[in-house]
Specification:
This protein is of the alpha/beta class. The chain has helices spanning about 5-15, 20-40, 50-55, 75-85, 100-115, 120-130, 145-160, 185-195, 225-240, 270-275, 280-290, 305-320, 345-355, and strands at about 65-70, 95, 135-140, 165-170, 195-200, 220, 245-250, 255-260, 265-270, 290-295, 325-330. It has a six-stranded mixed beta sheet with strand order 6-11-10-9-8-7. The chain has a five-stranded parallel beta sheet with strand order 2-3-4-1-5.
Length: about 375
């Protein structure tokens, strides 16, 4: 096991990262979590009575106090979370997007209900705790009432089972599920966060998602040169992190973004628009990322009308969620769809694509997400 601060300095020395005072200020808090996990006693065996009865998992050691790292979009929170997962070494760790994790939990709860479990949360939480001691969540946010109603109980069991949680968020804890339905039932979870996690603000003035110096974000035509430009942007956004597919479960089906690192993802036009996806799928994509790279938007016409309609729906979702879009296309947005059914309606999409190219577009108040 290493230290997050050591990895951070190594990445700066290699040129993969630039020093940021605000990022450096939170590194001791992240190092503290790993140091305490490493120093914690090993997992205890089951008590004699529990072993005799053949029930339960090993008695857990108390959870080390975790960390709740919050700040504005693009300040480097996901990058720091990646470093922490890398530095954890042999500590059983899982690094996962919070939205993806909660989808897994809801699926587990459904299975527990089918089995007739009276307490559906406990067996699901215990199954997670059996696999990890450190859970690294990216982008904690609560927008679904189903998640809001079970998250307090879920995390209480995780903590009781000795799991340490480190998470990033665009919101301070008191603003989670703000104005949500039955929010008073959610408030104990905020108290639990403050009790079991150290709240740390990443107060950087630099938005790394927007810091492309007004750089180009639409490349046309979609040729080899455009591909090279997108490769360079992707490298700039992700550093030397290894991309992995991001699989989102939406209403029982899977939506896959072929490559993602933190809150940045990359896909071809056909991966996103050549499949029978709908508004719910694109809303899930927009919630899961801050930056989306799309390769190869073709000319649109009656011959690919269904794909064009999906592209319009996708852009609407990205636009409303203020996701930064970087893409290559057969032509400039206004020339992509010049004639045939749907061309008139596409004018609004072209206008949005043009607006989304502005260097200042997409900046948002973290409390307004």
């Amino acid at each position: 096991m290493g230290k997050v601060s050591d990895l951070y300095r190594q990445r700066i020395a290699s040129g993969a990262l630039r020093h940021d005072d605000a990022q450096a200020a939170v590194l001791p808090h992240m190092d503290r979590v790993l140091d305490q996990l490493q120093a914690a006693p090993p997992q205890k065996p089951r008590s004699a009575w529990r072993a005799f009865l053949g029930v339960g998992s090993p008695d857990p050691v108390p959870a080390v106090q975790g960390s709740y790292l919050w700040g504005g979009v693009g300040r480097g929170k996901s990058m720091l979370m990646d470093l922490m997962a890398d530095a954890a070494g042999d500590i059983p760790t899982r690094r996962v997007h919070f939205h993806e994790f909660m989808q897994e939990i809801q699926a587990g709860l459904n299975e527990a209900r089918k089995r007739g479990e009276q307490d559906t949360v406990r067996p699901v939480a215990e199954a997670v705790a059996a696999q990890v001691r450190l859970l690294c969540f990216d982008e904690m946010q609560i927008t679904d009432i189903a998640d809001a109603m079970i998250v307090g109980r879920l995390f209480q069991v995780l903590f009781d089972q000795g799991v340490t949680v480190v998470t990033t968020s665009n919101r301070e804890p008191d603003d989670l599920y703000k104005h949500g339905l039955n929010r008073q039932l959610f408030l104990p979870f905020i108290a639990l966060i403050r009790q079991r996690m150290e709240v740390v603000c990443l107060d950087s003035r630099t938005d790394y998602r927007q810091n492309r110096q007004g750089g180009q974000v639409w490349f046309a035509p979609a040729d080899a040169a455009a591909r090279a430009e997108l490769d360079a942007v992707w490298a700039e956004l992700t550093g030397d992190a290894t991309p992995e597919p991001l699989v989102l479960t939406v209403q029982g089906r899977q939506v896959t973004l072929p490559a993602h690192v933190g809150r940045a993802a990359r896909s071809s036009f056909w991966d996103l628009c050549g499949k029978p996806l709908g508004p719910a799928d694109y809303l899930a994509v927009a919630r899961a990322v801050d930056v989306l790279l799309i390769d190869g938007v073709p000319r649109l016409s009656a011959s690919n009308y269904n794909e064009a309609k999906r592209f319009v729906t996708l852009i609407d979702a990205l636009y409303e969620a203020r996701v930064r879009l970087i893409a290559s296309g057969a032509d400039q947005p206004e020339q992509l769809y010049n004639e045939g059914e749907g061309s008139f309606e596409f004018e609004r999409t072209a206008s949005r694509l043009r607006e989304m190219q502005d260097a200042a577009w997409g900046r948002r108040d973290p409390a307004g997400d």
